[in-house]
Amino acid sequence: MSTAKFHKFVEVEAINWRNQALDWITMGADILVVHYERLVQNSSRELRRIHQFLGFDTDEERLECLERNPNELLHRRKQGLLQSPFSESLVALVAQAISDVDEALKAAGHEPLPRDLYEQFR
């Protein structure tokens, strides 16, 4: 199912993601790490963290509106694949990139990646 072009794309982009994340983690002077999965899980809490980090006042009415009106109607329905397009070598490469970034986050005192929320780690 996986083509050579897809394989190369994943290979290059996994390495690029890893390197970029490691650069930000190790060289960023004052950064706030925001995990997409946590943002989806609890948008209000994460937006409060972002506002506090940036020194912005939080508009509680807007956050309450966000909580009352999740955008679930705008989401596409998930369509499962019959077979994963990822070969065993790609799965290993992506898993290693995730592990490298996770370890760097922990070493720098940041919240680790929310692996428990990743479908492939459940």
Mean pLDDT value: 88
Instruction: Classify the helix fraction into a percent range.
Output: 55-70%
Number of helices: 5
User: What is the domain tally?
Assistant: 1
**Overall radius of gyration:** 18 Å
Shape: flat
The strand count comes to 0
Uncertain stretches = none
Distance between the termini: 24 Å
Taking the sheet with the most strands, its summary is:
none
Element order: H for helix, E for strand: HHHHH
Derived structural class: mainly alpha
Portion in beta strands: under 5%
Helices and strands, with pairings:
Layout: H1 4-27, H2 36-41, H3 43-54, H4 60-68, H5 88-107
Helix pairs in contact: 1-5
Describe the 3D structure.
The protein has 122 residues and is mainly alpha-helical. The chain has five helices and no strands. It has one domain (4-72, 86-121). The longest helix is centred in the N-terminal third of the chain and has 24 residues, at 4-27. It is flat.
Brief digest:
The chain is mostly helical. It is built from five helices and no strands.
Give me some keywords for this one.
122 residues, mainly alpha, 5 helices, flat
